[in-house]
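The protein record minuted underneath.
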Amino acid sequence: MNEVRAISVFVRAATLGSFRRAAADLGISPQAASHAVMQLEKSLGVRLFHRTTRKLSLTEEGQKLLQGVEPALAMLSSAIDDARRSGEEVAGPLRISAPTALGRTALWPSILEFAALYPEVQIDIRFDDHFTDLVSDRADVGFRGGSPPSEGAIARRLLPIQLIVCASPTYLERYGTPKTVDELDAHRCSGYRRANTGKQAPWEFMVGGEIVYREMAASVCSNDIDAETEAVLAGVAIGQLGSFSAVSHIRAGRLVPLLTQHLTQRESIYVYYRRRTEQPLRVRTFIDFIVARLADNSQFFLTAEELVTSTSRSSRARSRRTAA
C-alpha cells in the first residue's frame, strides 16, 4: 500500500464528503479511492469513516487523523511544488567548485555576468586548487585545469591551456632575451609550487615533436599563479605561464612571448557536472551560459596566427644576431 497516496485520498474524501468527488479531484476511479481508504483503515486497525448510501462522515479516529496529517500534507505539497518550480525557473542555490587561478582570470567575469542576468540564483562558489570532486565539494558544477575529471562526471572541454614562456619588456631590456631553451639556465626564472604535492612544477617544451620537461632553478617561487604572474609582470623573472593568465598581458604589450616554437598545449580547462537530466534548470542554464561564453574563446589563448607571427619574429632576431 502506498500510504502517502492513501492518506491523500482520505484527506480529499474527508474534505469533499464523497469518494466519488475525491476520485474525480485526484484523477482516479471511485473504486480506487474507496479501496485506498479501506487499505489504510486495515493498516491502522481503525475505522476512519461512517459510510451510508447518502453520506460519508468522519469517525472520531478519522477526525484525529485528519487534524494530524493536514499540516504535513500541506508541507509536502509545498515541497513538491518548489521542486517542480526548480525545474521550470532559473532560481535557487548554485554551488560551484573551481581552482583559484582559473577562477579569478578566466571564470569569475563570466560568473558575475551570469549572476547579473539571473538575480534569483544564489551563487556559492568555492575556490580551491586541490583536486576535488562534485560529491566531496557538494557542488553542482565544477571546473578543472589539466586532464578531464575521471570520477564519473560528464566533462566538457572549454579552453586549451598553452604554457607560454614570457617576460616583461623591462626584464628583457635589463637581462637580454633567451633564444634557446638552454639559454634559460642563465636567466632568472619564476616557479609555481603545486597545491596537491607541494612540489615545484617543471617547465615543459615541445622539442622535435616530443614534450621535454626541465627543472628550473626559481629566483621567485609561489603556490599562487596570480602572484607568479605579478612577479613576471614586475620584471623580476621570466615565467612559463598558463595562457589564461598571460594572453591579455601579451596582447597589451605588458609581456613578450618567448620561444613560442617550443610552446606546449597538452592540457585544457574543463567544466564538469552530473547528468543534465538530473539537474534543475538553473544548473543547466549556467552550464549552457559558460559553454557559450568560454568554449574555444580566443580571448584566453594565442591563436595560430599569433603563434606564427611570434615565431617569425624570434627567427628574424636569431638571424640578425648570427649575421652580426
About this structure: The two ends are 94 Å apart (CA to CA). Residues 160-265+300-323 form a domain with the D-Maltodextrin-Binding Protein; domain 2 fold (CATH 3.40.190.10).
